[in-house]
Amino acid sequence: MSLTAVRQRLLTINNTRTYVEFDPRETVQLYNETKRYLKHGDTQLTPEQRLSLMEMLFYLSIFCSEDVEAQVIYNQISDTLGEESCKLQVMKATLLQFNGSIEEAIKYLDDLIRQEYEYDTDMASYTVLSKKLLTLKLYYGKDYNNNDVNNDINNNTENKQTKKYWDTWIKEINILIEKSPLDPELWWFLAKIYELNRHFDYAIHCLQEVVLIMPFNYIAFAKLAEMYVYYSMSTKINHKDKVEVLKSALNNALRSVELSETFLKGWTLIKLICERLKDEDKTRLIKLANKKLKEIGNESNDYDRFISGYILSK
Amino acid sequence: MEESFSRLLENYSTCYSDLMEFEALKNLLLRKEKKTKSKIVSETTDSSFFDSATFFGLKINLAHILMSFLIKILYIVSILQVLHSGFSSYEFHQLVKNTNYKDHYSLPKDIQLECCIGLALFILTSFLSFTKLQYYPIKPSINNKLRLLTTDQYLKDISLSRANNVHNLIGNDPNGEVTFTPNFVDLQRKRKEISDWLADNSKE
Amino acid sequence: MSVNNVDDNGNPVVDLNSATSASILQNMDNVNYNKKMYVNVMDKISLMSGTVTGILQYESLTGFRNFFIIYFGCIIIYILFICKGKPSRFYANVFNDLVFEHLVRELLGFVMAWTFSFALVG
Fold first, then answer.
1. Which residue from B137, B136, B135, B139 is spatially nearest to B26, judged by alpha carbons?
2. What 3 state SS string does chain C have?
3. Which of A7, A32, A223, B98 falls 20 to 30 Å from A257 in CA-CA distance?
4. pTM of the full structure
5. Which chain A residues have a beta carbon less than 8 Å from that of C25?
6. Which residues of chain B does A235 touch, with a Cβ-Cβ cutoff of 8 Å?
7. Is B179 helix (H, G, I), strand (E, B) or coil?
8. Which residues between 136 and 155 in chain B have a beta carbon less than 8 angstroms from any beta carbon of chain A?
9. C37 within 8 A of B130, measured Cβ to Cβ
10. More confident residue, B12 or A23
11. Contact in structure between B29 and A303 (CB atoms under 8 Å)
12. Optimal mutation site among B179, B197, B201, interface A, most CBs of chain A within 10 A
């Protein structure tokens, strides 16, 4: 039974790509677990699932600087699937990036896109490859790279050079969006950049696009509500508009908890927004949010329990 | 001009600290715990799911193993019973065929009873073989262990809002492929972070 | 609500009360999972009860009566113990999903096992 749960967990991590968000300790642990799991074997694992787990192991070994093992895994996968798929081409570019040089990887992807995908109808593969190419070019490429600049997406620095750097990002991503407007990841990343540069109104627009593409993505609804709250705090808008903006924030937060009953972030946002909307009478909503937060505190995982307790105690 | 800008900045920072907390808190919490409990972390870093599974959930696992064993035994017993009664019934009918009193004899009570008990046992076992849904959380908890979370139901909820509760329970983001922007990950930074962490940890 | 499904602030509006969206707001994976679990257990039981009916040498209506008693009995047990008395939480259309959808399938399985063991024993 516990093997079923283990399989489920690993497949979920792979399907949602949560492993890119793990911190070093968790990454190393996950790497060891996946390796052991695949070695031990599981009769209920279908070949497709096995291959997808191997793809995850490939990226985990790249993260852990185990380049030789990554090469071995790549060879195993390409033996079964060939090298035509865009996922394998991205993996090959990743290997080139670390075993060869960045220029080589860029050249490989550039040639591939120019020769095959530019005139092809396979839009999805084209987008995936272009994203990889863009990442290589803008993070490490000669023309753009700027080692002095802290180009961490999670750090916000007020710097002219950084601004220029992000402007190139925005320009490049907009070109890609023109070509494939239905890719939610591009819109999300653009929203992330705008948030970083504090253009919250632009970020709101991007997230609205995400929500249009994925109408049941409750995480995006909560993020949208968060952006509205930030936007309401900017000094550009007057008091009357502020209430309107906060109201749309509340609507989005409510939508997110409608789609997911015990969503911690959604309920927290509702509580915070209602407290900010002083003119309106929202005591019932605050009560409801408190009740739900208490519920989450009773029966969720360790992190959510801790955080809901913290928010309630404030 | 500058004053207003700085006020704006301040405004944002308070707002960030207000709202981002539930995101940032997780990291903060982890770091704190790491510092205080670094010994435990380094001890159990290598713990695979086999170790952890047998380690943390000894009782749960034992109960599960016993239960699945019992169910298998019950299945075998019930099927054997039905087979045995079938064979008895076959013999009985063969005997009756050769006599002239075909219509006078009905199947003996003990064979009927054995057959019915076999069926009842089989039905009971197939309902007992339902197990409650169990999940591992996506991220290991602070002391680096995976705690098996058992829900109180055998089937999965169909309404979207309740179905998503499972994701909240295990700390999963079902739209992670979009939210985490996996195609835009800075691989070299990630590698550096992990190799730094490994270097720090091996020293201890 | 405007024509473009967008309200005054530019937010997308999803009308939750309309009939179409109510049926969409279900997790189809879970619906299929629940149906699969139900069919699995009912398949097993109908085959076994068919075998037992054949062994007992029941004929015509008695055999079918046997099937329906076991079938409905199992549905009641399933609703009470597996669904914990709230089948509408796990099945969108309780009567259709639990009673009618698989009736023919289970009946055919039952008849197959019944005739097989009947001929074998008799």
1. B139
2. CCCCCECCCCCECCCCCCHHHHHHCECHHHHHHHHHHHHHHHHHHHHHHHHHHHHCCCCHHHHHHHHHHHHHHHHHHHHHHHCCCCHHHCCCCHHHHHHHCCHHHHHHHHHHHHHHHHHHHC
3. A7
4. 0.80
5. 216, 259
6. 4, 7-8, 11
7. helix
8. 136-142, 144, 146-149
9. yes
10. A23
11. yes
12. B179
In this structure, which amino acid lies at residue B115?
C
Mutate to test the interface with A, among B56, B184, B197, B201 (most CBs of A within 10 A): B184
* Residue C23 pLDDT greater than 80, yes or no: no
Selected for mutation to probe chain A from B175, B188, B201 (highest A CB count within 10 Å) is B175
Pairwise CA distance, residues A84 & B13, whole Å: 48
Measured CA to CA, the distance from residue A192 to residue A231 in angstroms comes to 14
Q: Between residues A55 and B62, which one has the greater pLDDT?
A: A55
List all residues of chain B from 101 to 140 with a beta carbon under 8 Å from chain A: 131, 134-140
- Binned at pLDDT 50, 70 and 90, residue A44 comes out as confident
Q: What is the pLDDT of residue B3?
A: 43
Nearest CB to B89; choose among C48, C92, C121:
C121
Helix (H) or strand (E) holding B30: helix B21-36
Rounded to a whole number of angstroms, the distance from the CA of B148 to the nearest CA of chain A is: 8
Q: Which bin fits C60, alpha (ψ -120 to 50), beta or left (φ > 0)?
A: left
Q: How confident is the model at residue B41, as a pLDDT?
A: 30
Contacts of B115 in chain C (CB under 8 A): 52, 55-56
In this prediction, residue C22 has a pLDDT band, given cuts at 50, 70 and 90, of: very low
The tens digit of pLDDT for each residue in C60-117 reads: 899 999 999 999 999 999 999 999 988 989 998 889 999 999 999 999 999 999 999 9
Average the pLDDT over A259-268 and give the result. 87
User: Using the beta-carbon criterion (under 8 Å), do B107 and C56 form an inter-chain contact?
Assistant: yes
CA torsion C30→A296→A29→A45, rounded to 10°?
Answer: -10
Contact state of B85 with C55 under an 8 Å Cβ cutoff: yes
Residue contact B170–A301, C-beta within 8 A: yes
The 10s digit of each residue's pLDDT in B49-82 is 443 444 344 445 677 788 889 999 999 999 999 9
Q: Please answer whether residues C59 and B137 qualify as being in contact, where contact means their C-beta atoms are separated by less than 8 angstroms.
A: no
User: DSSP per residue over A224-275, as a string?
Assistant: HHHHHHHHHHSTTS-HHHHHHHHHHHHHHHHHHHHH-TT-HHHHHHHHHHHH
Average pLDDT of the residues in B143-155: 79
Cβ–Cβ pairs < 8 A, chains B and C:
92
Provide the pLDDT for residue C38: 94
Class of residue B146 by CB neighbours under 10 A (exposed 0-12, middle 13-18, buried 19+): buried
Complex-level ipTM beyond the 0.90 threshold: no
Q: A255 and C9: CB-CB below 8 Å?
A: no
Report whether A14 contacts A56 (CB < 8 A): yes
What pLDDT is attached to residue A142?
Answer: 62
Q: How far is C24 from chain B (nearest CA, A)?
A: 9
Comparison of pLDDT for B26 and A83, the residue scoring more: A83
Mean pLDDT over B128-149 rounds to 80
- Residue C80 and residue C73 in contact, taking contact as beta carbons nearer than 8 Å: no
Contacts of B21 (CB under 8 A, 6+ apart): A307, A310, A311
